[in-house]
Amino acid sequence: MTTFEIGNKDFLLNGKPFKIISGAVHYFRIVPEYWYKTLYNLKAMGCNTVETYVAWNVHQPKPNEFNFSKRADLVKFLQTAKELGLYVILRPTPYICAEWEFGGLPAWLLNIPNIRLRQNDPLFLAEVERYFAKLLPLVAPYQTTQGGNILMMQIENEYGSFGNDKNYLRAIRDLMQKNGINVPLFTSDGAWQNALEAGALIEDDILPTGNFGSRSNQNLDELQRYFDNHHKSYPLMCMEFWDGWFNRWKEPVITRDAQDLVNCTKELLDRASINFYMFQGGTNFGFWNGCSARLDTDLPQVTSYDYDAPVREWGEPSEKYYLLQKLLATYPDASPISEPILPEITAYPTLVPNKSVSLFSTLSTISQRVDSPYTQTMETLGHYYGYLLYRAKPTAYSGEIKLRIYQCRDRVQVFNDQQKVATQYQHEIGNDIMLQTPNGAFQLDLLVENMGRVNYGGKLLAPTQHKGIGAGAVLDLHFHTGWEQYLIDFERYDQIDFNGCTDPKTPSFYQFTLTIDDEPKDTFIDTQELGKGVVLVNGENIGRYWNEGPTCYLYVPAPLLKQGKNEIIVFETEGVEITQLKFSDKPIYKKLDTKDL
């Protein structure tokens, strides 16, 4: 049986010094059919270990609903790594950041009155305990202490950039141990003294590690200084060595020079162990993208989590991959170098829509209706992600009336008798909207999109993470009472009534059929000529698109397709009439200036 220990200067594998050469792969961002290929390529680059976060909101999407199937089948991912001879670093912490929706925290936590997230709060810890009781017994058999391949696990993630509640950290540690975790534990924080002092548990002999992406010697010196200040001796490790970066809508793609990465990697490996973050980034399928917190307007991240990583979102090794292969081959603990498995990508023929229908015409079949006197948030309605339509039927006593919407996140489109009047974003919501109204009853529709909750920083606790319309909508000078709320559910895609009325000027569904004669291959949907919305492929929500860029494509892995007829549904919100759907054999980017790290 393999033994793993944290020594004074080295990690010890079976009693001998061992340099961890790891790469990050998030199983929930890659289709399960490609886990083997991804992990094979990781080992072929020279890595001996794979690291992954565990996303709480993926595994517990509702308070009484747990999910460990398909992309959430963590056990299958661990088994695949074991079959390939890879060790695992597991990070099953309540919070993960990872540019993931709400940093991995389930949105339903926001419904618990007075809860204090990521703090030594009985309300929060009770929910963590309930989650851990389901999760940890599944992964415990894969620990090296039980004959498995998990070397160590994380208590909390970059906690020193959020709080300094050491009793909270100890409570998480205790819950892990209570549920059968007995491999070495660690924390990871930015490599500066304030973050380490706040977020580590060095006083309890828990290994501190650092997160950084450059100035390797300088950051390792800071980590060593922290050890020395506490009269401790541990092996040095960068738990997140940022080899690229993530992207946000309307901003340039961020890239990193491959040779610069290799130079910094060598500097690091000569002194420490490494975890490349990311090895392969993958995709924020569905509504799982995170959001960067800003003082006024938060900045949602794009569907692609390509990260400019050594292996691209679509599984293609980049220049970084091959240069790192050469470097890693010089270290004795590296896995044997071999040729990677390459993706097969094609551009399918352009399609024309079979049918289309206005959202307003099929609203009752694609959503659940909930009536209430005042508007309710998405969380209150148990509809945590995506879109929600609020409908009222007020009476006007003049030809024009003023509308103001209060406490609304993140984006709202206003329709007056199904005619679009305005679109407002976070920084505009609350401004006056003038409605031209008949002297009598009219229909007011407010389509609200949750564009993603923040994944980092103090705004995790902010009221702005409640989505939908909180306070309500004011007509003239009074809050309007009497609302129909339609919880748009894309899992009801097969109930869309394409026999209903069409109106391309309104949010609409477009149906396409892709016929594939041979074995399906990966492809990209070209979204340059579309407006904003989401795409479903055989019922699978493959993510959001937006012609603002920088990404103007959606990646479609072959396992989501099948031989024969494939149904593709586009939900377009911007009044763009879709007359064709194009494919590409390469990713497409809007011509914005590229930013270098």
UniProtKB/TrEMBL annotation:
Annotated Beta-galactosidase galactose-binding domain residues: 507-566
Residue ranges of every copy of the Beta-galactosidase 1-like first all-beta domain listed in the record: 376-488
Key word Signal present: no
Gene Ontology molecular function: any one: beta-galactosidase activity
Occurrences of domain Glycoside hydrolase 35 catalytic (ranges): 11-330
Sections of the chain in a coiled coil: none
List of catalytic residues: E158 (proton donor), E240 (nucleophile)
InterPro entries per record: B-gal_1-like, BetaGal1-like_ABD1, BetaGal_gal-bd, Galactose-bd-like_sf, GH, Gly_Hdrlase_35_cat, Glycoside_Hdrlase_35
One BP annotation, GO: carbohydrate metabolic process
Keywords: Glycosidase, Hydrolase
One Pfam assignment: BetaGal_ABD_1
Highest taxon, organism lineage: Bacteria
Family note: Belongs to the glycosyl hydrolase 35 family.
Protein name per UniProt: Beta-galactosidase
Organism expressing this protein natively: Ursidibacter maritimus
